[in-house]
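URGENT: need a sanity check before tomorrow's submission.

F., can you look over the TraB/GumN family protein record below? I want to be sure the sequence and structure line up before it goes out.
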Amino acid sequence: MRHFTFLLLFAVSLLSTTSTAQTLEKSLLWEISGNGLEQPSYLYGTIHMTCDASLDANIKKALDDTSLLVLEVDMDDPSMAMKMANDIYMKDGKTLKDLVSAEDYTILSDFLKTQTGMPAEMIGNIKPFFITAMMYPKLLDCAAVQSFENELMKIAHEQEEEVLGLETVEEQMAVFDQIPYKDQAQDLLRSAKDNMSFDKAAFQKMMALYVEKDIEGLAKLMEEDVNLTNTKHKDVILDNRNKNWIAKIEDFAKQQPTFFGVGAGHLPGENGVIKLLQKKGYTVKPIM
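Structure tokens as predicted:
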């Protein structure tokens, strides 16, 4: 189930982008200071699934200089798997068959059987967004999927530091009840109709920009996204969550120097974490 969490976080990261009015430097690691903080904290933009999740020297130093790791959700929570299992299914007995035409359901059935090895009847009551997330490992050209979150947690454990979250599993899962299931199903159907060719091309571009630490480029790339989940419901999947995180980031940073690891798409934009923290009076500068 932890692997499924990585898939979910990756899917959210893939969608979590927005436009920006002012150019930000090419950096994934940012120092948070000022506004009464006794010691700086750090904000790091991750990508939740990759072939190489190696952490560079700057990231390791920031982890050494902090005493708490905070991710999007507390991935150390032993009850996380059970909480997720309770919330991956659609409400009110809905299934994929209720969300698309008979012709499109046939297309989805064939696609899911090919991609997952499971018939649509077996997984058709899962929220379509999560079904899409199951296919994301196929976008990677490597045998073993790695996660930056996992690497960050390894160091936190070695340093005997606690791992916490900016939102609960229930809060994150609830996001996908606010986005209409029909829109999620249309995104899944689009992937099925082009056999994920758009997804693969977008992922390759995204990985190249991530390697370049170009968070502005990532935001602009995702403006070209064709997913309804992103274009119609950006406020739900991104903006509202970022705004809810700011008070929690402040509380953690005031109590102790903290390393925050969130999807890189959460960093840029007027409603991105960097600008929102700056508007609150904090100095947020890139570690180049």
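My own read: Confidence is low (pLDDT under 50) at residues 15-21. The chain is about 50% helix and 10% strand. If you see anything odd, call me.
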